[in-house]
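Is guanosine-5'-diphosphate placement plausible here? Inputs below.
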Amino acid sequence: TDLSHIRNFSIIAHIDHGKSTLADRLIHLCGGLSDREMQAQVLDNMDIERERGITIKSQTVRLKYTAKNGETYQLNLMDTPGHVDFAYEVSRSLAACEGSLLVVDSTQGVEAQTLANVYQAIENDHEIIPVLNKADLPAAEPDRIQQQIEDVIGIDASGAVLVSAKTGLNCEEVLESIVTTLPAPTGNKDNPLQALIVDSWYDPYLGVMILVRIVDGSLKRGMKVSFMNTETDHLIDQVGCFSPKMEKLAELNPGEVGYFTAAIKSVADAAVGDTVTETKKPASEPLDGFKPSTPVVWCGLFPVDAADFEDLREALGKLHLNDASFHFEPESSAALGFGFRCGFLGLLHLEIIQERLEREYDLDLITTSPSVVYRMHMNDGEVITLHNPADMPDVTKIDRIEEPWIKATIMVPDEYLGPVLQLCTDRRGEQMELTYVGSRAMAVYRLPLNEIVFDFYDRLKSCSRGYASFDYEVDEYREGDLVRIQILVNAEPVDALAFMAHRSQSEGRGRQVCSRLKDLIPRQLFKIPIQAAIGGKVIARETISAMRKDVTAKCYGGDISRKKKLLEKQKKGKKKMRQFGKVEIPQTAFIAALKMG
Ligand code: GDP
Ligand code: MG
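Reply from A.M.:
I modeled the complex. Tokens:
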């Protein structure tokens, strides 16, 4: 296809505004799917995605559309991952397109995620087509939402298309609008090859598959290519596209989007954002914007049953095959034994991996307190990155500590604004902006990431009755008065319970954890002191008093079988405990103790 007949676009939307439904509808209209296949949402693959309504891995589809002018066009629909932790992957998908469909539910209006995505699209110079969805619903207010898009986002919404992705109403107009209003890509087939890696994933039959957008040159089977940022060479063995079924092609040309395979073993070797060029005729420079993915949230994952350690290692390895953005390395903890220190792009990413391990691999896990990555500037000038509070260096050798901050956008109906602002203040937030759009407020805050990793989403949802929407991007590192709080049980520090906090909050948090542990750790035969300490200084203390009698004591003289039963029950209970020094700590205590209240 010549360049003037190609259009590359993505769909951006807040969760549940109808992105997947519209995508399926467009595929159906272009003959890519039968009625029966339409039943299932094709673009969302995994169970978890479907249940949670988020897209984790993107899928891209090439459509053939014959427009009203009689010409046939190649439309490449790039699906983007649908949640906040994958901002970089979203930005690369957007960089591979010339325009976006901005889908807004016309019964709901603009939300935080709509905004975050649309700003990225604008940064990538996209032409934007507003699509007002769910026109079939009586509560739809297309005029108001159209005005809102102009007011809040500041783009011209006069060309907005009012559709129902569900019934198909007006969806053909969306395709027309793509052809008439989005620009065609540019590029030159005779220039050296430059292709942007937009996504990569592991296919059990074909190995690693790489999705690319060709900028210049062409990509063919048998060609030797180099990845310019990671500096590796590969031989292309298959080239093709998805329509949405996989189709082999002879070559991919400028402006086009498609996949290739090259006997690559791990997705980590095909980094999103890297540039593919031809080894014997390389481009002079890679494309802009390459950023190796770095985990921002870390936690320990330990098998409940120590015998599952090897299974856990294998499961983590398998998940890593398909998700290079998640990291893991062996770790051992005095309290929890052998496990792994794992790094994630964000909290939701952590939850998804944890859920998949439990669901798909049937593993019972203990998760330790999530921690962000701190930068320790040492007195001798060395900078240490710390992602496990247990590894905190000697404080007398630390000059200063920096922590990551985020920029958060929160949208909330007016009546819940008060508690939301209070929550942000409690979490050390700094207000950047507060504006109103009708009866909704938009607050932009800077917040330390460490204050949101635990339960910020939950709190935000509960204090706004589920109406607040939230989006964030990692902003910058800033110095903070941070301390490590150690928890001592029976005078011994429990490394898996150590956590970092701002000094101003350390006492309150320390006290809270001690009092939680007091309730979580069962009484034992002796008195157990529980302390929170910074360095050698105890800042909070609780005591679990001793159990008065042996459990069997109460059946003195009673029948022996009852006594046996009690002992057995006690033994079973023990399985879910971890021996620590003389004290047994139930597994559930590790995470429960650290939840902020
Ligand atoms: P996504 O999260 O943006 O991908 O949203 P989905 O496409 O999964 O849609 C979310 C929900 O809205 C689903 O229950 C859809 O059936 C429903 N939905 C999508 N489009 C329409 C529409 O035009 N009208 C109505 N009534 N419901 C819709
Ligand atoms: Mg979806």
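Short version: Confidence is low (pLDDT under 50) at residues 53-58.
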